[in-house]
Write a structure and sequence with these properties.
Helices cover 49% and strands 16% of the residues. The protein is α/β, with parallel strands linked by helices. Helix 4 packs across helix 10 (271-285), helix 15 (400-421) packs antiparallel against helix 17 and helix 17 (431-452) runs antiparallel to helix 18 (457-469). The structure holds 5'-O-[(L-methionyl)-sulphamoyl]adenosine (MSP).
């Protein structure tokens, strides 16, 4: 046991539509990291949730002819069922419409910013893109439209509260440069430093309360009920409100205040919010900053960003139904680098499944356990061994694909070893020698299985149970034609 702790968060997802494979990616790599830290004996806390006080959700609900709050419950139920199917071991799912769990902390944080003199009122005119839930500038547009969402932003003129983010520009920059706020990978660190190099602008941090929003949506600005908090100000605070900031400080103390490992996983499109606005808010409130931001790339399909219009969206539910949980986890872990964009097509998924799981791991476990079941009179004795350095180093550096590749190298090596040592022949000539080889192969399978636990938890359990029962497991990964 160690007394180390590990706090990891995913972004909170917009509940305006079902989640796609890109969202499943963020959550799955987060889960692998948390399971690894849990397995080595650290105390972990894993947070995910949904970002609900948004115009895009209200628009989506109205399009479906539903009351926004009813619509929300329906979508959030789908999020949880997807996460369950993906075997995501989160400790808490925070919803930003939760008035008991989220609002008190968000309002307390706001009050801290006010006390620091960092909130001021200003008349503002700008272009608001609902897709981004952010103001955009003319130079962000192509033919008058937001290139990411294909929509014309709304021109808004209103009186808002502003956050004095510009004041923290240099402090944030220094902390990122020095690695005190560690941004992974290096290319994303450079990107945010160059953004900070241009100088941060103050940000609009509230919107007038919208008459067409139902009661219970949008966090009122403390002391001014005519305004609600800007959705990113509200959303970012979830990382501490969920732990109890502003209401019950025990978990907050344990995992934010007194913890060295505070980590956010996020996609590259939301780096500026996490690498500039969030640290600015925490600095203003006098709270510790996160330690690490792991910024991953995008999943593309057929070389193009997944999008409904292009018709290349891959629904994780579809893959889960056809191939099962661990097949999806396997693909995301091994065939995507967390640091770059990665491509998937239904074809490449099937090929990866057949090669790595049906012919690879599944076949190996079945060959070895067939031999063990036939020739060993009792299960092999299992011993806990620490993870190999290559494997832990990769995971400590968030190189999930490398750690997974390492496990599959050992799977191939063990496959070759069966062929080279030919236990099925040896056992006929010299039973004792044959049994010794089979014991050795089974022990190595158990060791590989230990490394599979954070990546493919259900499969790892099946294999270890087969080893302990000295029985060939069911067909783990049937071949797909
Ligand atoms: N609600 C905000 C996050 C607030 S966090 C305080 C948001 N939500 S989102 O639902 O649009 O996206 C959630 C995460 O999914 C982001 O990290 C985003 O980068 C990620 N992905 C969305 N599409 C993706 C791919 N195609 N590939 C990989 N991840 C992508 O942003």
């Amino acid at each position: 046991m160690t007394n180390k702790k590990f706090y990891l968060t995913t972004p909170i997802f917009y509940p305006n539509a079902k989640l796609h494979l890109g969202h499943a990616y963020t959550t799955t790599i987060s889960d692998i990291l948390v399971r690894y830290h849990r397995l080595v004996g650290e105390r972990t806390y894993f947070l995910t949730g949904s970002d609900e006080n948004t115009q895009k959700m209200v628009d989506a609900a109205r399009k479906e002819g539903q009351e926004p709050l009813v619509f929300l419950d329906g979508i959030v139920a789908k999020f949880s069922s997807l996460f369950k199917e993906l075997d995501i071991s989160y400790d808490q799912f925070i919803r930003t419409t939760d008035r008991k769990l989220h609002w008190p902390g968000a309002q307390k944080l706001w009050t801290k910013l006010v006390e620091s003199g960092d909130i001021y009122k200003k008349e503002y005119e700008g272009l608001y893109c609902t897709g981004h839930e952010a103001f955009v500038t003319e130079k962000d547009l192509v033919d008058g439209k937001c290139p990411d969402h294909g929509t014309v932003p709304e021109r808004i003129k209103e009186e808002n509260y502003f956050f004095r983010l510009s004041k923290y520009n240099d402090t944030i920059k220094n902390k990122i440069e020095s690695g005190e706020l560690h941004i992974v990978p290096q290319a994303r660190k450079k990107e945010i430093l160059s953004f900070l190099g241009d100088g941060l602008q103050d940000v609009s941090f509230s919107r007038p309360h919208r008459a067409d929003w139902p009661e219970g949506l949008g966090i009122p600005v403390p002391g001014d009920e005519s305004q609600v908090m800007y959705v990113w100000c509200d959303a970012l605070s979830n990382y501490i409100t969920a732990l109890g900031y502003g209401r019950d400080d025990a978990l907050y103390q344990e995992f934010w205040q007194d913890n060295e490992a505070r980590m956010h996983v996020l996609g590259k499109d939301i780096l500026r919010f996490h690498g500039a606005i969030w640290p600015g808010m925490l600095l203003s409130a006098g709270l510790p900053l996160p330690k690490t931001l792991l910024v991953h790339g995008f999943i593309t399909s057929g070389g193009k960003k997944m999008s409904k219009t292009l018709g290349n969206v891959i629904d994780p539910e579809e893959l889960l139904a056809e191939y099962g949980t661990d097949a999806v986890r396997y693909f995301l872990a091994r065939h995507m680098s967390p640091f770059e964009d990665g491509d998937i097509t239904r074809e490449s998924f099937k090929d990866a499944y057949n090669a790595g799981l049906a012919n690879g791991l599944g076949n190996l476990a079945s060959r070895i356990m067939q031999l063990a079941q036939t020739h060993l009179s009792a299960p092999v004795k299992l011993e806990y061994k620490p993870f190999p350095k290559e494997f832990s180093d990769a995971l400590d550096n968030f190189e999930i694909h490398k750690a997974t590749e390492y496990v599959w190298d050992r799977i191939s090596a063990l496959d070759r070893k069966i062929t080279e040592t030919a236990p099925f022949k040896v056992v006929k000539e010299d039973a004792e020698k044959g049994r010794a080889i089979i014991t050795e192969l089974t022990t190595e399978l158990a060791f590989i299985d230990q490394m599979l636990e954070p990546i493919l938890p259900a499969t790892s359990k099946k294999i270890i149970e087969a080893i302990m029962a000295n029985k060939k497991p069911e067909n783990l990964f049937p071949r797909k034609e």
